[in-house]
Amino acid sequence: MLKKLDEFKQGETGLIKTVEGEGRLRRRLFDMGVTPGAVVTLRKKAPLGDPIEITIRNYELSLRKAEAALVTLEVAE
User: Fold this and answer.
1) Could you read off the pLDDT of 1-32 as tens digits, one per residue?
2) Which of 67, 58, 62, 56 is closest to 6 using CA atoms?
3) In the CATH hierarchy, which fold is given to the domain comprising 2-75?
């Protein structure tokens, strides 16, 4: 099942399928390791959902909700 990263619940894990966006924002996500094929686990969400903290490539990364909405993952079951 495909799902956007901003829709994940705490503890959910998935495999990145696509990263949308253009220009500097897309490049920034790629530079931080948010690339197709990477495994992501949602660690925490702020009370209002922004920002979120994920574990990717053995490190913790905080993303804004708008950035997370650009990442589509296949949910691990």
Assistant:
1) 999 999 999 999 999 999 999 999 999 999 99
2) 67
3) SH3 type barrels. (2.30.30)
